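quick one if you have a minute, typing this from the bus. theres a chain ive been looking at and ive put its sequence and its fold in token form underneath. please have a look and point out which stretches look like helix strand or loop to you. anything you notice is useful, everything is just below.

***
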Amino acid sequence: MSSGNAKKRILELNRLISAANVAYHGHDKPEITDSQYDKLLAELKELQKKYPQLVSDESPLDQIGAPINTAFSAVEHLEPMMSLDNAFEIEDLQAWNERVARGLDEDFSYITEMKIDGVACSLLYEDSKLVRAATRGDGKVGEDITANVMTISSIPAKLVETVPGKLEVRGEVYMDLSVFEDLNKSQIDAGLPTYANPRNTAAGSLRQKDPKVTASRKLSFWAYQIGHHSGDLPVDSHSAGLDWLGELGLPVNPERKTHKSFPAVEKRIGAGLELRNKLEYEIDGVVVKVDSFAQQQTLGATARAPRWSIAYKYPPEEKETKLLDIQVSIGRTGKATPFAVLEPVLVGGSTVQMATLHNADQVALKDVRPGDTVVVRKAGDVIPEVLRPVPAERPKGSKPWKFPVNCTSCSEKLVRPEDEAHTFCVNYACPSQQQSRIEYFTSRGAMDIEGLGESTVALFIEKGFLSDVSDIYSLHWDEISKLEGFGRISIDNLKRAIDESKSQSLSRLLVGFGIRHLGPTGAEALASHFGHLDKIKVATAEDIAAIEGVGPSIATSVSEFFAQKKTEIVLEKLRSAGVNFAGPEVVEVEQTLAGKTVVISGAVPGYSRTEAANAVKIRGGKSPGSVSAKTDYLVVGDNPGASKLNKAQELGIPVVVADDFESLLSKGEA
């Protein structure tokens, strides 16, 4: 691959991985499978290794999680909540073990724990009382979910022993398989859609606005780590730390073992695979850690993961079933996606009846046909996919499936753009697109209009109340009141949610439009740079692409979206309804840090972490999350990360104390 092609592919991988992070961590709705995500990461790692000069300061390999959901208050973690590096083969694990041995040059012990397929959560106890709970977020800043976590019965509001000062406990919130099955049974009985899997259901339950809903989901929790302790720890190893957390009344998973040798670790991984289907909760691997805290400190961490731990991930579970039919769904952008309708089969702890087939090329490549017996898996126990047919069981006279020529929703001709893998319906008035666009606009990550869910949107479209997103703000309430299930209270609640959505931020409105390639991070960058929707509307693709964090693909999509006549009509109706078009105030400041990279580590007085980074960016600088050879300054505040400071000293990068941050901003130099 030439350097030019490598650069294009790296930019594309950065965008795909960042979008996947937002979908998985920010919206609890993964758009690709875990295995697909892991392949993207592996490809990016390989390209960055081969072309180090093309590595971006904003590489997703240095990022953790995703930006927080702004529906919740931001919480700064006392210590970063890092991710774990993954091993998929025993050889990967052996390579990790060799790196640890070289880094320590002394004997060490291991501890293994089940890798729970749930949602990472941080609990903060002050003088033994639970005062705060937060999601991982981007590793530095999470979402405040205290009220919801307080409803989880297994989490103690007060520790059984007195622990002076602050104790931060890391753990995993999950949903038992039996609870998940009961929840789906109740959904079926009520005629409502079923939930996809326990992990996503747990994540969605944690982010409910009403804690009573969270309480009804019967979530559980396993503590897996001491994140921070303001006093002297009474233990010196991870295994002893877990025992201590158990003594304090916190639930600690019993499936943990310490080992003196690496062969014992390998044996434990094999045993865990056999144990997997016998547990009452989902696991997707085994976490291996160096047990000693002192040795963990010696090994340190990279920008996103500790060197003293690794997650060995099990292969997805595979099952055979009958492929009853292949159908095509039309999404909000018009993308036509084939999917398999299956004879129900239990895979990875939940019943699978439908699975993605991705696109026409994939169907042809796999040569799966209605009537086939097929192999299905839940990759990473998230999104089901059809892997391959079983040719020996194919019915006689079977013919290859052909992609439809016309849209299955509006009958307009489908179009496949040159050099694209996907096929599209280009009819903006297509009913399926209408419904998907409106659902996306009202979703929690966009305008957050509670009460306008899938079934209500479908009903309102059928009745002629909705044809595009702007119609939400001119609904005929007298007509709606005549519909079954829409009494005074439900109508008042929906009215209130719609009125409140008018004041949502410009970045959320941009996300709600569902512009291709544009996610929350890009929307935030556009809103902050231009300050008003009218300025974005008239900006050229070149103007948009020049903004940090917005690439050419996003710029082209945004420019084309606002150039359409139908967009102008929708915008004017939204303006008349009083929907907010204004973004953050754009303040003209001297570009003192133009072309410079400033990394922030620790808390800077007077600034949140986000505010400190933004202070650098509005002065023309960059503020990535990790130190590299391209870093010009490291700003060190309270409780800085040791790895960043060590790396800055190794590379000879100037270190600026927090008291001199203002001076750096105004002068552009230390």
Remarks:
- The first strand starts at residue 74 and ends at 76.
- The two ends are 41 Å apart (CA to CA).
- The chain has a mean pLDDT of 87.
- Residues 3-26 form the longest helix (24 residues).
